[in-house]
Sequence to fold (434 residues):
Amino acid sequence: MTKQTVTVTDNVSGKQIDFDLLSPTMGPKAIDIRKLYKELGYFTYDPGYLATASCTSAITYLDGDKGTLMYRGYPIEQLAEQSTFLETCYLLFKGELPNAAQKQDFEQVIARHSMLHDQMQFFFRGFRRDAHPMATMVGVVGALSAFYHEDLNIQDPVQRERCAHRLIAKMPTIAAWSYRYSKGLPFMYPLNKLGYAENFLRMMFAVPTEEYEVDPLMAKALDVILILHADHEQNASTSTVRLAGSSEANPYAATAAGIASLWGPAHGGANEAVIRMLQEMVDSGKPLQYWIDRAKDKDDRFRLMGFGHRVYKNYDPRAKIIRRIADEVLARTPADNPHHKLFDLARELEQVALSDEYFIKRSLYPNVDFYSGIIFLSMGIPLQMFTVMFALARTIGWISQWDEMMGDEESRIGRPRQLYIGATQRDYVPLDQR
Ligand code: SDX
Fold:
């Protein structure tokens, strides 16, 4: 196929430069601007990277206009329906679905890495009991590099894969122990015979003094939620992991940076913010329209949390599946459970917002965070653990994208430029003359 180009005419210098047009397997083409500064002496300016591709990737593709999402080419709806989270982890990291032997071997490897070095328990004890578990996650995950420094040759794909196994396996233990510590409960160790989601729920809610049976519907619902949150191309936290990893920092430190980025309420912290918003609406007794009007008011910082998305200008396909799971999980909880009220309010809010011109014009739909918190509440997972759940799931996405970057010949240390708008050169003014 003949190479396609885009010609840029610089009306200042009169120069005309052809730039290569790069063709993806799916999605928009990209103008290769790498020679722009050398040829024309200009940078590009794109705060928030709305129209800038930072890398090539073969892991996840989403079409924001159609509201579609695929992991390694497989539609998220099919994976949610037919796969498991660990099988999806294998797919995201290795690029193909495992056969039966590969699947069993992977599950065994992950199970065997699920314990933490016994010294790590003292990291938890260094925090106040009321520390936000995301703070604990950032600290403890970053500390993993202190325990595996002999196995951190990131140029070695085998060692990179072992880092991935450790992170996938240990995140549920670290997450559950963050919760247990905040409650003054003893740490529960993982049981290798249990499935991934089942193991996590047991570590969260069992007590050493009696047997604990995980509700299989809750375990299945959680496993699907983890699949839906596993990866999402170059979102803020994944881009953070890639940027941190581009300096060849170790993957545990890069993952800790991703956790910190995900914590923000504009990103993964939105699931916690949605519940706080719904609860405030319930407590205020004000009509929904009052909140819709505030969300539309430019002078009011209030936004409908769980609504809108940088890429999806259609319904987030994950939100559709999560809303169905919420229905199923809530059907298993007593009718007088207050979570029903939150779910009913969320669905009413969605209907009101989606019929309002402001939201329609800006293509603001519920995103992955809008309904997920209601499911976590119904599982007994407290508010402060919601973004921890997102981090637990997204770890596979982060480490798969990191591994892809480390294996990418074109990968270089990330170092964006800027549009400087500060003072031009001036001389120092002695103190007695200011
Ligand atoms: C995640 O990137 C990913 O893939 C992220 C994620 C993933 O899986 O990794 O999908 C997970 O982070 C989901 C998003 C969770 N965040 C929230 O729910 C917080 C509420 N949403 C917004 O803050 C916002 O929609 C963002 C941050 C998600 C997207 O912001 P953008 O792309 O920068 O959009 P914008 O702020 O430029 O908004 C465009 C317009 C603006 O109005 P105008 O200036 O055009 O008049 O839409 C308005 C915004 O004011 N708007 C909202 C709104 N979101 C955008 N107005 C009211 N309520 C909202 N939620």
